[in-house]
Design a protein that fits this description.
557 residues; alpha+beta; 8-stranded mixed sheet; 7-stranded mixed sheet; globular
């Protein structure tokens, strides 16, 4: 395809991603500019069809950052309507049995009094309304497909994705070229495993002094339940069966959540650590059988499932934090891995990093800065913030669970958080990348999962339908294989091709027909969870942005 002429637009700041970090940064930038009586142009692009369409979280959130950003958020109508009223934590020791842990022995970070059960998608929709009211240009349905650089290597901005390119790579009649969005500074807030963030890590060696990053796959469903079983404000967490090694050969860490939201709805989900070793493990199927455990089934039985989704979670924490600044831009939120896994919460930390970034960028621009510099002052702001203190105090939480499992690791974390307040005089580390943990299939036991019953458990395609996922079919595949031969020639004989199991949306299949065995990619099903980009043992799959507006459309998630 010949060179394309592109229009360009210039802004003081461009923000990539309409999640909590990006929206908080946008709002704070315009607050500061408006307070100072200064003109400041801020543009935010979001690949989802609308703000909130791709947002997926449990979610029980702390309002700490929101309290700072909009102190009168309650009067402003922010959708934080359900305060937590009750906390329960279970250790599941079998398919039927469970032990409810006394409140006294729950790690302090798992206490949720004062927090709120929310739809994070709806919180982001509300934040976008505030951003627009403050003067931010919000562009949903536009992907940030490429990073633009100055000749000196500093970030110049981003290019939005072309629309109307056929699967053959050639323009269709509907072709519309992407635009160049030029900025003095660009903030990358793409969420977990952002595809541009991944490039920035490599370009600027941002993780050179960090531990290996770690991830979990979060799978979530929204249910309408019998009002008699609904207890608005109740929060339930648990771990153990079916994931732990003593419950399953080649098991892994993780845990479930069950939150009683408003309107007789509950959210139920499972987080599966992606450091598992058995290639036969299927996070999706683990979640489906988990729902038959009495602790969960007693709430769901007789109810109706109304939504489904999945998303990777960056959970390496303090030890895996990268350098967050580089010439011309900053990484914020889950793009930098600021989630506090000891709380299973990243919204408040993401928002605060966005606010800190906004303050650093605005201070620079106030002095007449023309952009392109490495704003290292952001690192100092971060180091002196409550986010840094919170993440540092929970630095051992993930490694303890990885090394010792739910029972012993949980005991270490209880002592660390409740008795030593996160100040144990040592730091546990886990420097083994998640993808490198897979063992050959020949060394592992296959896992037989029960057939879904259509009442509590369901097949993948039925679930994908509930995520409202849709992509323009005639477009280049956004799941790129560096070497197309690896899935069948290498991954299949060595690892039983785990992509057909780790993907929670049925994107990858090994198909055998008259022409032989082939690897099939059903890109239309992709819910943008990024698990393939993380877990493929050959690191052969690269997730890139499809056409803007494609992917899931999550309502109330």
């Amino acid at each position: 395809m010949s060179a394309i002429e592109r229009d360009s637009m210039e802004f003081d700041v461009v923000i990539v991603g309409g999640g909590p970090a990006g929206l908080a940064a946008a709002c704070r930038l315009k607050q500061l500019a408006n307070e100072a009586g200064q003109e400041l142009s801020v543009c935010l692009v979001e690949k989802g069809s609308e703000i909130g369409a791709h947002i997926l979280s449990g979610a029980v959130i702390e309002s700490r950052a929101l309290d700072e950003l909009f102190p009168d958020w309650h009067e402003m109508g922010a959708p934080l309507n359900v305060a937590v009223t009750e906390d329960e934590l279970y250790l599941l020791h079998s398919a039927k049995g469970a032990v409810k842990l006394p409140h006294l022995f729950i790690p302090a970070t798992m206490h949720n009094q004062g927090n709120y059960i929310v739809s994070l998608g709806n919180v982001c929709r509300w934040l976008a309304e505030q951003a627009e009211a403050l003067g931010v240009d919000v562009f949903p349905g536009f992907t940030a497909s490429e990073i633009l650089y100055h000749d000196d290597g500093s970030v110049r901005g981003i290019q939005t994705g072309d629309m109307g390119i056929g699967a053959d790579g050639e323009p269709k009649d509907s072709f519309t070229p992407g635009m160049e969005l030029i900025a003095k500074y660009t903030l990358f807030a793409e969420g977990s495993r952002g595809h541009l963030g991944k490039q920035l890590y490599q370009q600027f060696k941002l993780d050179a002094n960090a531990d290996a990053q770690h991830y979990g796959l979060g799978i979530k469903e929204l249910w309408d339940v019998d009002p008699a079983k609904h207890q608005q404000g109740k929060v339930v967490h648990g771990s153990g069966w079916p994931l732990e090694k003593w419950a399953m050969p080649g098991g892994t860490g993780g845990g479930f959540f069950l939150y009683h939201a408003e309107n007789n709805q509950v959210v139920v989900g499972l987080i599966v650590d992606l450091n598992y070793s058995n290639p036969y493990l299927s996070p999706y199927d683990e979640f489906q059988r988990l729902k038959h455990h009495p602790v969960i089934a007693q709430t769901l039985e007789g109810g109706k499932r109304v939504a489904y989704g999945a998303r990777a979670i960056t959970k390496g924490g303090f030890n895996a934090l990268p350098k967050m600044t580089f010439p011309g831009g900053l990484l914020i939120g889950c793009n930098a891995g600021t989630l506090n896994f000891s709380k299973i919460k990243g919204t408040h930390t993401a928002m605060k990093t966005g606010m800190l970034a906004a303050e650093e960028v605005f201070t620079a621009l106030q002095t007449g800065d023309e952009g392109g510099r490495d704003l290292t002052g952001y690192a100092e702001r971060f180091k002196h913030s409550w986010v840094y203190e919170e993440l540092e105090s929970s630095r051992n939480f993930g490694p303890a669970l990885h090394k010792y499992g739910a029972l012993l690791g949980g005991t270490v974390n209880y002592l660390d958080q409740n008795w030593f307040k996160g100040k144990l005089p040592f730091t546990l580390r886990d420097n083994h990348p998640d993808y490198a943990r897979l063992k050959p299939a020949s060394e592992c036991k296959p896992i037989t999962y029960p057939k879904p019953d259509g009442k509590l458990s369901f097949d993948k395609l039925t679930s994908v339908f509930l995520s409202n996922t849709n992509h323009e079919e005639d477009q280049p595949c956004h799941l790129r294989l560096k070497d197309p031969t690896i899935p069948i020639q290498s991954n299949l004989p060595k690892y039983a091709e785990p992509a057909q199991r780790y993907c929670p949306a049925g994107v990858y299949e090994v198909v055998e027909d008259a022409s032989g065995v082939r690897f099939q990619i059903n890109a239309q099903n992709c819910v943008h969870c990024k698990t393939c980009d993380i877990k493929d043992p050959a690191q052969n799959i690269t997730w890139v942005t499809p056409e803007g507006g494609g992917g899931p459309n999550y309502p109330n998630m």
